[in-house]
Design brief:
- 46% of the residues are buried.
- The protein folds into two domains: 7-137, 60s Ribosomal Protein L30, Chain: A; 143-321, Alpha-Beta Complex (Phosphoribosyl-aminoimidazole Synthetase, Chain A, domain 2).
- Strand 1 and strand 2 (36-40) form a beta hairpin.
- The chain is an alpha+beta fold and 322 residues long.
- The N and C termini lie close together (9 Å).
- The protein has helices spanning 7-15, 59-72, 92-109, 160-168, 171-174, 180-187, 196-202, 216-228, 243-252, 274-283, 318-321, and strands at residues 25-27, 36-40, 43-52, 77-87, 112-120, 128-137, 151-155, 208-210, 231-234, 266-269, 288-295, 302-304, 307-309.
Length: 322
């Protein structure tokens, strides 16, 4: 089975088992929260750990962006990474390719790789990385901070990460239905996966921010709703979907709203701050859209047009790997 541990099992077997207590921890493990926050003399240290194993062609660069995104979406500036690399065989070429990607991506985002571990793991079929990102924040922004009356802001568009993966790892699957030019443009979406700049423009006003990864916008919005104990009303027609995303997802039988969504940032912001936040994003060259509102939890957690959601979904792309 692929995918995250279900919320009830997560609560029973993971979140409830956290070792010694520490008063400096202001955010520990919780459903929907992708980072920890620890109050230190220097500020609030934000920490995230993320595995990646399925997107093989650009696993190093994607891994860096995914780890840094979660720290940025918590209001911090990513500064340091550790990298654990598991290799399915003893190929020096694979290790060379992965570490070169890690180096380039970390340099692009402005973070230092300060340690980690590398080993051969012949039981694996593909490489696997576990990246941990660290950064300091003046103010921690949780997933679970949305308030009724907030506006839901989305940067860029839906399915950016999925588009890049489909255009590379699944090029043979979708190549008969879309021209090479679309595949080539889709592969360039890897350059749009980071939300570090997005989050920096939004964080001063945001009550909550979240980076939609597995399960895409649907799961990202649902996680924000559950973590915040609110309901969300979202207009699907207001969510941008790029042409390459529509065409590649259609060829693969994938819903752009229900698949890997890194590259977009979800934020709950006060209505009065909407113009200022969208203005800062525009100045940074980042498109944004108001896609919905936050309400009291008096109904389905997520209303997306005519569809309603109360439980996490399974990412549509997982079927392609099985």
């Amino acid at each position: 089975m692929l995918g995250k541990v279900p919320p009830d099992l997560l609560e029973a077997l993971v979140v409830s088992r956290t070792g010694a207590s520490d008063d400096r921890v202001i955010q520990g493990p919780a459903y929907g929260e992708d980072t920890a926050a620890i109050r230190l003399d220097e500020g609030i240290l934000v920490v995230n750990a993320d595995p990646i194993s399925l997107a093989v062609e650009r696993i190093g660069s994607l891994g860096v962006d995914v780890a840094c995104n979660d720290v940025a979406a918590s209001g911090a500036t990513p500064e340091w990474l550790t990298s654990v690399v598991f290799l399915p065989g003893s190929s020096d070429e694979v290790l060379d390719a992965i570490t070169a990607q890690l180096d380039r991506a970390a340099s692009r985002v402005g973070v230092s790789i300060v340690g980690g571990h590398s080993e051969y793991a012949p039981a694996l079929d593909t490489p696997m990385l576990v990246l941990t990102c660290f950064g300091f924040a003046d103010r921690y922004v949780p997933t679970g901070g949305a308030r009724p009356g907030d506006r839901l802001l989305l940067t860029k568009s839906a399915g950016i990460e999925a588009t890049a993966i489909l255009a590379t790892d699944f090029r043979d699957l979708v190549g008969d239905e879309v021209p090479a030019s679309v595949l080539d443009r889709g592969a360039e979406f890897y350059d749009d996966v980071s939300v570090v700049t997005d989050a920096a423009a939004v964080r001063d006003d945001a009550h909550a921010m979240h980076d939609p990864t597995e399960g895409g916008l649907v799961d990202g919005l649902l996680e924000l709703a559950i973590a915040s104990d609110v309901g969300l009303d979202v207009d699907p027609d207001s969510i941008p979907v790029r042409d390459e995303t529509r065409r590649l997802c259609r060829a693969a039988g994938v819903d752009p709203f229900r698949t890997f969504g890194s590259g977009a940032l979800i934020a709950a912001i006060p209505e009065a701050s909407t113009a200022a936040v969208t203005g800062r994003l525009r100045e940074a060259g980042i498109a944004s859209s108001v896609v919905g509102t936050v309400r009291e939890p008096d109904g389905p957690r997520l209303v997306l047009g005519e569809e309603t959601y109360d439980e996490p979904i399974r990412d549509d792309m997982y079927a392609l790997w099985e």
